[in-house]
Design brief:
The complex is a heterodimer of chains A (about 500) and B (about 325). Chain A is an all-alpha fold. In chain A, about 70% of the residues lie in helices and about 0% in strands. The longest helix of chain A has about 35 residues, at about 110-145. The chains are: A mainly alpha (about 500), B mainly alpha (about 325).
Chain lengths: ~500, ~325
């Protein structure tokens, strides 16, 4: 029953959203308009309506929440929000006080604390307003129920509801608070910082920073003037990020399927043993394997020694893949080699995972289709491309999207393989602290962790987010059909 | 293609009394068998080669951990002389940088607490979204999917600042909060599994007067055992093998605060690599052992859980 409704909403989700927002506020209007004195009194004292309906404890609790919020707003929010427009004006100054023989610090503004606490305050305000509106509608509903002579819940029954009809509230409250704290709030702060000049020249508490509008975004995409290198670096890093994400996703995906099929195919002895051998390679954490592998492929490392001994280095030299004045293969230190090596090493890291997943998918694959195709005389290739692959794509399609997004943000592989190893020779990239092998995320990480350039890092973060969202939504809308989940709950 | 077809046809023919046909079929069957046998050998050989490629770095980790040479060997794959001193040093002889026992303990504590909290969160959210119908459910699911697209790595600066403003950087409580607070968003696989459990199970319990809490613990939890095992193991492994957040949050430079990931990374600082590489390998090997065991245990659940979750999510 809910299914049909949800589908309808999805079809016209644009108008559906506006309509539901409209209804949200109009319901509030009706409650104010049609409610009796007690309901209207709840506009001021939120628990009044409940108390009038003999829901005394609930009424008192709700009023207490209101009082508490007003107190928090006055004591905590107002001092920060009042400075939100400027992010502080009083710079920190230290003066020597001859009386106490101590350095005295003035009552300075800390831009960052103002920003962060203002965001929290605004968020609390939003939550409170929503709660306030919801509360009034609730009061009005109870008024109508009381009028109609229906039973009005006692406090005890309300509590019992939290384990029954309203169990979802019990289950979702704590996780939601966690998500607000760890996901929503940071995103809001990140977006805010992108519009300030928070960098190493404006570091609180010693200095103030302030709003600068869109200028950081302009710095990133502009191609002229003093800021030329940022636009240049952004173009380079972005294109490598996308190339990398496509290569990494598809090589591991295809590799995983092929490996899973190979292990499962007829004639292979001990499939479980083979699977476990590959799993051992990923059981060692990435921060161990990747650091290990990067030392494996050092310029003076063991692989280079072996390559030199068997003459591979000279061979590469003769066909021009290694510079004439180098007597080693620059696996991770020259641009081209490093990019190829990173993709190869990522295959090494990623294929076992994909193999495990593909194994599960293939085990569940419909066998009768394959069988009937075989009887009809389809070749192995035809069966693979026309039956197995479409099935895998239906099942694994959404996971492929997540993998792509994850690879755009694949910090570990790039950072652990290239940090302290790869140095760029491109002066324009170096000017903006980027390298050829950087992904947007590793660039962002170094901008913050080493160069304290928070404003540009935030801008990059927002852009990566937009890329991920646009890509995901586009891909999902092609692949997914809404409300499928209930089809399986028989 | 034609081969398989003929083979099928001839199997039928085989049962007929005509001798000639049987003869032809035998010849073909022999050819097929030979081809299959060669194919099987080739397949096993290919797998062996691939397995070697995948295991060489692991083997290098293993043998270097037993090397008497404390730095990197540039010319030999296997060490010249073997010793257990690296393990002794890592486990029992801490110095100002290398405090492996301490790191191991930190990592274990952080991982266990994060694992408990985030598994609980995931199960709670999954139950609410899969088994309950309430207004705003679809909206919350959609919002959570959009939030889930925002990779944690990107907002980490902001996370760092928020934690700093409440004084939780360089603190293990802070690490637990970072790892587990947002975990409710990772409900998709578990919810996918719960979606496959027939509603009738819950309805029956409801008719007998059980409230949702009882259904959650007494009906759903036992039915979801495989996916819960998967969830718990992966919730444990995530902080156990995390690098980036630990690197960002534990930046005090005080060795006793570090987790294994940060410790091992800092051990191989440019100036230290020639004295610490073998010890690094020993440490890396030690932290991999529990994971390997968990991983091999989890393999089955991983295959079942992820496959069913992704079909039905």
């Amino acid at each position: 029953m809910a299914k049909g409704k949800e589908k309808k909403v999805k079809k016209g989700s644009g108008t559906g959203l506006i309509a539901s927002v409209k209804k949200y506020f109009s319901d509030f209007g009706i409650a104010v308009d049609k409610g009796d004195w007690a309901t209207r009194a709840s506009l001021l004292i939120m628990g009044a309506g409940f108390i009038a309906r003999k829901q005394i404890i609930k009424g008192i609790l709700v009023t207490l929440v209101e009082a508490l919020y007003i107190l928090v707003f006055a004591v905590y929010s107002v001092p920060y929000l009042s400075k939100f427009g400027t992010l502080g004006t009083v710079k920190m100054e230290q003066t020597f006080d001859p009386l106490t023989m101590q350095q005295m610090t003035n009552d300075y503004d800390n831009s960052f604390l103002i920003l962060i606490h203002s965001m929290i305050s605004l968020f609390l305000l939003l939550v409170f307003v929503m709660y306030y509106i919801h509360n009034l509608k609730n009061v009005y509903r109870i008024e109508k129920e009381a009028w109609a002579g229906r039973h009005v819940n006692t406090f005890r029954e309300d509590l019992q509801d939290l384990l029954g009809k309203k169990f979802h509230i019990t289950m979702l409250t704590l996780p939601t608070i966690g998500v607000v704290l760890m996901n929503i709030l940071p995103i809001l702060v990140l977006v805010a910082i992108a519009f300030t000049n928070y960098d190493q020249n404006h570091m609180p508490p010693a200095a103030l920073f302030t709003w600068v509008g869109w200028s950081n975004f302009k710095t990133l995409i502009s191609s002229g003037g003093m800021t030329i290198t940022f636009g240049y670096a952004f173009g380079k890093v972005l294109s490598w990020t996308l190339v990398w994400a496509i290569l990494a996703t598809f090589t591991c995906f295809i590799g995983g399927i092929l490996l899973a099929m190979l292990i499962q195919s007829k004639g292979v002895k001990f499939p479980k043993m083979w699977r476990s051998l590959f799993v051992v390679a990923i059981a060692v954490p990435q921060f161990v394997t990747l650091i290990l592998v990067r030392n494996f492929f050092r310029d003076d490392g063991i692989v280079n020694t072996i390559c030199a001994n068997i003459g591979l280095t000279d061979f590469f030299k003769s066909i021009g893949l290694v510079g004439a004045n180098q007597n080693y293969i620059p696996f991770l230190t020259s641009k081209g080699w490093a990019k190829v090596m990173i993709v190869l090493i990522n295959i090494w890291v990623g294929v076992p995972y994909q193999m495990l997943i593909a194994t599960g998918v293939l085990l569940n694959a419909p066998k009768d289709q394959v069988e009937s195709a075989r009887i009809d005389g389809a070749s192995k290739g035809q069966i693979f491309w026309h039956i197995t692959m479409p099935y895998i794509m239906v099942v694994q399609g959404p996971a492929l999207i997540t993998d792509f997004v994850r690879n755009i943000n694949n910090f570990n592989v790039i950072y652990l393989l290239t940090q302290d190893v790869y140095t760029t020779t491109d002066q324009m990239l170096a000017n903006s602290n980027a390298k050829e092998v950087d992904l947007l995320v590793t660039w962002l990480f170094r901008l913050t962790n080493e160069y304290y350039n928070y404003k540009m890092a935030s801008v990059i973060g927002i852009i990566v987010f937009i890329i991920c969202v646009v890509f995901t939504l586009a891909a999902y809308s092609k692949m997914m059909s809404g409300g499928r989940e209930e089809d399986y709950q028989i | 293609m034609s081969e398989t077809m003929e083979n099928n046809v001839s199997t039928e023919v085989q049962q007929s009394p005509k001798k000639i046909n049987v003869h032809i079929d035998e010849g073909k069957g022999m050819g097929m068998k030979k081809k299959n046998a060669i194919g099987a050998v080739l397949k096993n050989l290919l797998l062996a080669i691939l397995a070697v490629i995948w295991l060489i770095p692991i083997l290098w980790l293993f043998v270097t951990a037993f090397s008497t040479n404390p730095g990197i060997s540039y010319s030999r794959f296997f060490p010249e002389h073997w010793t257990l001193d690296n393990f002794k040093r890592v486990l029992f002889l801490p110095d100002s940088v290398l405090q492996y026992g301490r790191w191991f303990w930190n990592t274990l504590v952080i991982s266990v607490f994060s694992c408990v909290i985030s598994s609980a969160f995931v199960l709670m959210v999954s139950y609410a979204f899969s088994c309950m119908r309430f207004p705003g459910r679809q909206g919350m699911i959609r919002l959570s999917m959009i939030l889930g697209m925002f990779p944690g790595v990107l907002s980490m600066i902001a996370v760092y600042f928020i934690m700093k403003s409440i004084g939780l950087t360089n603190s293990h409580i802070g690490m637990v909060v970072v790892y587990s607070a947002g975990s409710g968003l990772g409900y998709l696989i578990v919810k996918g599994f719960m979606d496959t459990i027939p509603v009738s199970m819950r309805e029956a319990a409801r008719l007998e007067g059980a409230n949702e809490l009882v259904i959650f613990f007494k009906v759903m939890m036992p039915l979801c055992k495989p996916i819960i095992v998967y969830q718990i193991i992966s919730a444990f492994l995530a902080p156990w093998s995390d690098f980036v957040f630990a690197r960002l949050m534990l930046n005090s430079g005080i060795s006793s605060d570090w987790t294994v990931a940060i410790g091992l990374y800092n051990m191989l600082d440019k100036t230290l690599i020639h004295t610490n590489f073998a010890a690094f390998c020993a440490g890396g090997l030690l932290i991999s052992i529990p994971i390997s065991i968990l991983f091999i245990l989890m393999q089955k659940y991983y295959v079942e859980g992820v496959a069913s979750g992704s079909t039905k999510g």
